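User: Hey, quick favor. My workstation is busy. Could you predict this chain's structure for me?
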Amino acid sequence: MKSLVNLALITVAMVLILLVAGCQQQPAPVPITPSLSPALAPAQTPTPIEEQKPETTPSSKPILKEGWTLHSDPEKGFAIALPSKWKVVTEEKTQPDGGARYLFYAVDPVYSTPVLDVDGSFSIVRASLKQEVSLALFEEREVRGLEADPTTVKPVSTRRVKLLVGEAMESTYTKNYPHRTGPVVFIQYAHVRGKELYILTSETTPNLLEKYRPIFEKMAHSFRLLTDPPLTMVPIPLPTISTATAEEHFYRGLAHLDGDRYDEAIIEFTRTIELDPYCAVAYVNRGIAYRQKGMSDQAIADFNRAIKLDPTLAKAYCNRGLTYDDTGEYDQAIADFNKAIELNPNYVIAYFNRAITYSQQGEYDKAIIDFEKCIELSDDPSITKFTEDNLKKLKEVSHD
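Assistant: No problem, here it is.
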């Protein structure tokens, strides 16, 4: 924690939840593989209906799984997910060097000894910066400082990762402290927002590293700032669905989805599909709920089904592209964003998502073009401003 230095941010990570309303009827039944969904073929052909196209706003929210809890601190301006059994230490912990401030400190009580000597812990530190430098320069200085420290066991491993808040530098290293009974392994994430540096540090022992590594990664990837775009969605126009009962379940599903009650949303959209098996957007919305639960395979299966029912549904391709982006399958993500834009050349969110994926692949020129297209097409001031900020920071990094 002693090597807190300045760095500049390329903001590339953003989870965009595309809430889709309305159902598109195919002119004839489409065979559906039973293993993909419990939906059954209809007894009779449903009445053709018209699809509605709602607006969406960017959002960034942690994906919570069973056994995990969201810790939100509005006063300190952040939120993070952590295992439900972990203990958040409320007492003020000793502050690090350089005037930085601890925002969060949590430990696994199963392996914890006294607070300053634990085998599983995670902390967040925020420090104010006097000026900005590139992430590459930060990485160079950080590694140099760690390797010069006699307590560090070489080598120091680093890589770039995408968090909800943006790009970060992940470093993994081991230290031998005189007061500890054995080596300590650190996995640390460094991210900057403007002139504020955020350091997310996880700490364990070599024998427990494999147990804790996936937990540390999930915690780091759930971290977000409450100053990010609001986690809200605009009202949805009333769609036409073949039965009143299906419509009721559909809207219950939308309400649960908007309230982050993903299990309940899945139940309601499944019931909608049972009553109206050709409702393509019910599959899309259920796929969104699956994606928010981290169930990528089920989400992609639902998006695939929606595309079979309605090959012109751009939102299905865009959401499938987002899921491929989640799993690191960037080529498939780009292909889906391309198809969404082909179907709807004015699809602002698809351009934005493709820019994000291009950035992650290091194709900054293509990302810049897509961000500029977003600004040209968007009539939403909040999306325009957020895109302009990303574009500015991306141009700074591309010229480093």
